[in-house]
What we know:
By secondary structure, the chain is of the alpha+beta class. The protein is built from 6 helices and 9 strands; from the N terminus they run βββαβααβαββαββα. It has one domain (18-243): Ribosomal Protein S5, domain 2, CATH 3.30.230.
Amino acid sequence: MPDLPRPDGRQNHELREIRFEPGIAPHATGSVLTSFGNTRVICAATVEKKVPRWMQAQGVEGGWASAEYSMLPYSTHDRKQRDITKGRPDGRGIEIQRLIGRSLRAVIDLRKLPGHTLWLDCDVLQADGGTRTASITGAYVAGQLAMRRLLKDGVITESPFRDSVAAVSTGVFYDTAVLDLNYVEDQAASVDFNVVMTGNGEFVEVQGSGEEATFSRGQLDQLLALAGDGIAELTRLQHEALSAQT
């Protein structure tokens, strides 16, 4: 099928412009400003010398990794009210931060982070679709930078990361499978997927659904293939960004 003219001129299989700008939050142990096109997320990793109470109560050895996610009030066209002023947490935000935490824990050997918690804070500066996928992809880079600092300071003896992790969206946009949807495409997509994979090509999580529509096995295979190719490129860009910081 020929490429569909997309709103931003990309081909169906192309990612948006991906950028990683390290050091955006100097007080964090590691940080990066992650950009997927016009979606920009500050990803900061902070390491605390403590673990959750449930780990202490159950005598669980090792450390922990967790995430928090939020959209800044000015990240969208209409001001987004802060959770604290609403008096209740945002359900979507909770779901996304849990996804980020699961995704990072899938590639971390927590036994190599004894007595410590790795916090991954993802704050959306500008939203144009794919904020969760940009958050996961950037959180890995921030986490790696944090571990390098701990290794340099002698806090840990080896990196707990077993593999890299990245995420990307795919979807059916006007009957065509496309990669890395921006906001306009996401709103019009009849099928929407978010795929999380390791650098070795294994799946961590697949979230997909039809938006008042169905999809075939062939379309599913096509969407997953697009995601796999996109994550392979994201993995290369993550490695490139980290190599530049050595």
